[in-house]
Amino acid sequence: RALAPTLPCGAAAFHATRSARDTWAPWEGKSKPGDSHAELHEMLEHWSPTKFYYAGAGMTAGLAVIAIVKGPFSVAALATAIPVALWWRIGLADIAQTKHTIKRNFPVIGNLRYLLESIRPEIRQYFIETEHDANPITRAQRTLVYQRAKGTRDTLPFGTRGDVYATGHEWANHSLYPKVATLENSRVMFGGPACKQPYSGSVLNISGMSYGALSANAILALNKACKAGNFYHNTGEGGISEYHLEHGGDLVWNIGTGYFGCRAKDGGFDPIRFTEQAAIPSVKMIEIKLSQGAKPAHGGMLPKSKITPAIAAARGISMDDDCNSPPAHSAFNDPRSLMLFIAKLRELSLGKPIGLKMCVGRPDELLALAHAMVETGICPDFITVDGAEGGTGAAPLEFSDSIGMPLTEGLRLTHNALVGTGVRRHVKLIASGRVFSGFGIVSKCALGADSVNSARAFMFALGCIQSLKCNTNKCPTGVTSQEPGLMAGLVVPDKAERVARYHEKTVHAALDIVGAIGLESPKQVQARHIFKRVSSTKVLSYEQQYPSIEEGSLLPGRNNTSPALQRWYETWGLHLQEHEQNTEPPTGPVGTEPGVLSRL
Question: In this predicted structure, what is the pLDDT of residue 38?
Answer without folding.
Answer: 57
